[in-house]
Amino acid sequence: MKPMKIRIIGAGPAGLYFAGLMKQLNPAHDIQIHERGPRHATWGFGVVFSDRALEFLRADDEALYQYLTPHMQTWPNLTIVHNDTRLPITGNGFASIGRLELLTLLFAHVEKLGVQLHFESEIGSLKHPALAGADLIVAANGAFSWVRSENEARFGTTTDWRPNKFIWYGTSQVFDSLSLTFRETGHGVFCAHHYRYSPTMSTFLVELEEATWKRAGFDALDPQATIAHCERVFAKDLGGHPILSNNSHWRNFPAIWNERWSFDNVVLMGDALRTAHFSIGSGTRLAMEDAVALFKAFREHDGDVPLALQTYQTLRMPPMKKIWDAANVSIRWYERMDELVGTLNPVEFAYSYMTRTGRVNHDQMRKRDPDLVAAYEKMHPEAFR
Ligand SMILES: Cc1cc2nc3c(=O)[nH]c(=O)nc-3n(C[C@H](O)[C@H](O)[C@H](O)COP(=O)(O)OP(=O)(O)OC[C@H]3O[C@@H](n4cnc5c(N)ncnc54)[C@H](O)[C@@H]3O)c2cc1C
Question: 3-state DSSP helix/strand/coil percent for the chain, to nearest 5?
Fold first, then answer.
């Protein structure tokens, strides 16, 4: 492949991983990434990958898998907490890592290969001099990508703002498994998605139905009072540890989709291309899979930009759409959490959670956790005669 001039907007997992793969393919590629943030700061805390999500990485890039996994926390089970009942669900392995640590490892990985990173370098226009003469411009600038929003008609973009409210916190409490804790309060159900991502820190994401959020008065609470309220609700789970903020604020989730993924020499990747709800733990995985798909398309077409961009979309869309659809079903399950916690007992609730997207059926669930399925069948003998 002849050397290409590649410019990437955004040093998140998608942009970094694509840069590394292309540079490995041809060290003569001139690849530069522009990142508006500084090198040592990022929003958020940790990200999680399912066991299966890590397998994709292993299949495509064993060396990177070996490089990243020693930095990850892993555990074999998932725990669902229904008020005070804890149900460990077996057969659901996960791994996690701090977002900043993941990015720092990827920065080192790509810089060693010769990719140039420019921090505090915001690109706000496709006419920016930094992009001049590029063979390929990759918009890997996250869910709020201006490249996408300024070209929605070309990309065929849809954005579906979901009603639940969520806020991404951390805590120094270290949990022993990926946990989903649902607590009924006088205002409604509070859900926390929480997991350890380092020996001393955990992610602690709080999600509420909009009506609960309003009843709890969060629209009028300042950041400290918001944390104090969540600490009271989850006091039993936090064990005296504080909730920690990192520029944390309430948000709604935008489910973003694009019918067309590129125009001219400009292509979308990662969250800029589509978002997948955090409840299926796949945002980072999907971003990195996009990078693999785009890289393979360029390798297959020997750097021919129009052909590679067409192949990227044709081959990547079907598997990606499956996960995106599952993520959107998962979102809607959380939008019914008040009703579900209130009407299902802990076993039924855990079963409903595990089978919510339709990707795990009864038999598969039995293989993962025979005890849970046996308890569920006992409660519903008529359905399993
Ligand atoms: C609350 C929450 C929880 C999540 N939890 C998980 C999880 O547990 N597991 C998981 O896998 N994923 C999770 N995700 C999703 C995950 O963070 C994203 O899916 C993933 O980071 C997408 O990678 P990306 O490279 O596409 O974009 P990003 O990681 O968003 O990176 C985009 C980069 O572009 C930069 N940028 C933006 N605009 C410009 C500009 N104009 N010029 C230069 N640079 C720019 C940004 O600063 C940023 O560094 C979560 C997301 C949220 C919001």
Answer: 45, 25, 30
